[in-house]
Design goal:
Elements: H1 2-11, H2 21-39, H3 42-50, H4 56-76, H5 78-111, H6 116-143, H7 151-182, H8 184-204, H9 222-231, H10 240-262, H11 267-289, H12 299-325, H13 331-337, E1 343-346, E2 349-352, H14 361-383, H15 390-416, H16 427-451, H17 457-481, H18 485-493, H19 498-521
Antiparallel strand pairs: 1-2
Helix pairs in contact: 2-7, 2-8, 3-4, 4-6, 4-17, 5-6, 5-8, 5-17, 6-17, 7-8, 7-14, 7-16, 9-11, 10-11, 11-17, 12-15, 12-16, 12-17, 12-19, 14-16, 15-16, 15-19, 16-17
């Protein structure tokens, strides 16, 4: 009987959990401690130490600019890491070597605590290393599963996300204290040690992993099919898709040249704007002519490209969420700096919560909400006839992030009115934003892997992370926009402070996109792209 039951389990996708998973989970916990340990003290360090040479009235905007530029880099380099892994080195080798660059970046932060060029170089190395491995570890987890145990993958993706927040929680609590009491070299050095441990643990499991080899040059790859679709000629017909892509290329060049010249914005904003324009116009152009690739490429390859284009629309509609989420480490810390933090007592230990430590609320709530959702909320929803599909969860998460910013904006209104506001009022927006994060981010990892065609999993996860780059681009654009006299004059006419206006603006941005996401979700057809046993 046990043999029959086992056969049923395997056929149903409920086979045993891969024994190599603990190495990947432990690696991720240490790596996330290292990343969030340095990221969560970056804004306080910039404001209190590195940017003291900047006049006080400009220091906050510059700190936010540096922080979000760094985040843009972190989530841009997955494109490079995914491409190298898929085409040349495989996921394991790419993760290992990028991890060593990551460790070197941490070392630079600890060494160059008072040298702005050395410190920024370290941030660049971390962005390069962290970004390079970011999509691959997730895809590497998915590679350990096949059709016999694919149903275990959702639990492992949840555990993967849980361990991320386990590391983030302790980093958020400890690093601000270490920065205050022991200085930047110790506070940035400890995350470097944790990243070195993460690399060692990942290396120790090398003989147990399933290693999916990089794809050989494929005449039916995404780029090949897209290029054919744009360039293919049909007698008696024009090439409107190619024209659209060409217009996009011209607009991108204009943006790259004009934005730094005529607007108060730097190269990062110009480059990312140009990238978004090229992707948007290019993908739309390919979709207009995709059927022309039939006969030149296999039907499976053409439908794979069509699937990727549909996934990218989902990713694009999620970008406003990242605009709101990543500002908890910049805008929300700046707000907390101006709030009252009452003294607390725990087991006879008196302490005052530091503004940066409020970020610990996010990971501890994630660790509670993931099992609560799986054990209580989702089964309850199914029992009453509501199926919590991935798209429904992500759409609800975007809307909740908008509500969190309405809450934080209301707090700002009271502060602007001169009220003394306790830092604990931020608990409500943190709770709303965290619930939104669980519904968007944890679900999105599983969605991205399951929907991606086999040869494109690394790249499609890179596009998932590129959504965070675009989300942080919106933040830089808004921050640059409020420096414009016309915009600042309009904000003043509303009676709101600049901070409050931006908070409500971002809330509205997210809520509008949540509505658009819900509309698109009704048309999206889910697929199953887990590999066969």
């Amino acid at each position: 009987m046990s043999s029959n039951a086992s056969t049923v389990d395997i056929k149903d996708g409920n086979g045993p959990l891969p024994r190599q998973i603990p190495y990947i989970i432990a690696n991720e916990g240490c790596e996330r401690f290292s990343f969030y340990g340095m990221r969560n003290i970056l804004t306080p360090f910039l404001l209190s130490t590195l940017l003291l040479f900047i006049p006080a009235e400009y220091r906050t905007n510059e700190a936010k600019h540096v922080f979000h530029t760094f985040v843009i880099g972190v989530y841009f380099f997955p494109l490079l890491g995914g491409w190298l892994a898929d085409r040349y080195f495989g996921k394991y080798n790419t993760v290992f070597w990028f991890s060593l660059i990551y460790v070197a970046g941490h070392a630079c932060l600890a060494i160059f605590e008072h040298n702005i060029n050395g410190f920024y170089f370290g941030l660049g190395l971390i962005a390069f290393g962290s970004g390079g491995i970011k999509p691959l570890v997730v895809a590497f987890v998915g590679d350990q599963f096949d059709q016999t145990n694919k149903n275990r993958a959702r639990l492992v993706f949840d555990a993967f996300y849980w361990i991320i927040n386990f590391g983030s929680f302790f980093a958020s609590l400890l690093m601000p204290v270490l920065l205050r009491d022991y200085g930047p070299s110790v506070a940035f050095g400890i995350p470097g040690i944790l990243m070195a441990i993460a690399t060692l643990v990942f290396w120790m499991g090398r003989k147990k992993y399933v290693h999916v080899p990089p794809a050989a040059p494929n005449p039916d790859s995404f780029s090949s099919v897209a290029r054919t679709a744009l360039l293919a000629r049909v007698a008696g017909q024009s090439r409107p898709g190619l024209m659209v892509a060409g217009v996009g290329a011209m607009v991108a060049v204009i943006a790259l040249l004009a934005i730094p010249l005529y607007f108060d914005a730097g190269f990062v904003i110009a480059f990312c704007t140009a990238l978004v324009v090229v992707l948007a116009f290019g993908c739309f152009g390919v979709s207009m002519q995709l059927d022309r690739a039939h006969g030149i490429h296999t039907a499976e390859a053409v439908e794979g490209v069509r699937s990727v284009l549909r996934i990218l629309i989902v990713f694009a509609l999620i970008t406003p969420f990242w605009s709101l989420f990543d500002q908890k480490a910049s805008t929300w810390i700046v707000q907390a700096n101006a709030m009252n933090s009452p003294q607390l007592s725990l087991f006879g230990w008196d302490f005052t919560l530091l503004p940066a430590q409020m970020q610990a609320i996010n990971p501890i709530l994630v660790m509670l909400l993931i099992p609560l959702n799986n054990v209580v909320l989702y089964p309850l929803m199914r029992a009453i006839g509501i199926n919590p599909t991935p798209l429904r969860r992500m759409g609800a998460g975007i809307a909740l992030s908008g509500l969190s910013w309405i809450a934080v904006g209301a707090i700002q209104l009271n502060m602007d009115a001169g009220d003394k506001v306790s830092i604990f009022w931020q608990l409500l927006p943190y709770a709303l934003l965290t619930l939104g994060e669980v519904l968007v981010s944890a679900t999105g990892l599983e969605f991205a892997y399951s929907q991606a065609p086999k040869p494109m999993k690394g790249i499609i996860l890179s596009f998932w992370y590129l959504g965070t780059t675009i989300g942080n681009l919106w933040v830089l654009i808004v921050n640059a926009g409020v420096k414009n006299d016309t915009v600042s004059g309009h904000i003043a006419s509303t009676g709101l402070s600049e901070s409050a206006f931006q908070m409500f603006f971002f809330a509205g941005f997210a809520l509008v996109c949540a509505g658009l996401f819900a509309l698109y979700a009704t048309r999206y057809k889910m697929v199953d792209n887990y590999r066969k046993a």
